[in-house]
Amino acid sequence: MTGAPARIVVADANIIINLIHAGRRTLLGALPGYEFVVPEDVVSEVSDPVQREALASALAAGHVRQEAITASVELTRYADLRQIIGKGEAACLTLAESRGWLIASDEKRRFRRETLARLGSGRLVTTAGLFVLAIRAGVLSVAEADEAKAILEQHRFRMPFGSFSEVV
Hints:
Radius of gyration: 15 Å
CATH topology: Rossmann fold
Structural class: alpha/beta
Distance between the termini: 31 Å
Strand content: 5-15%
Number of domains: 1
Shape: globular
């Protein structure tokens, strides 16, 4: 007997970079019931050599897999989205919309509005949301998530709560 199919989550560069900063990139391969992919455009956006190597390591280990936009309808949608948002965000939203996937991103403003309009609520996951999923799955403790949160704050990424104990 097999379990339910994995929910596929297409991850934007900001999620990948936040997990790398926090030393938690392996969460991408550890969350039960989820499979993470990154579009080629997101891979190319990760330009810092240390982060690039960490992403390459995550790809090689199978924690995340790289995905290409191939169908003509996806290429058209991507081109339309590129007129209003960046290439990585456009690639993520294109794949999530056309393939029925979730999307992981911390982008705000236009991207968030476009995502909610195209996908509806409940299909956008943030860095904080990934940590909550990990805590609920028993992959990460609240203390470990709070430690990661503190590290991210040193990198100027703030979450609107004091501790994950407040949101789990």
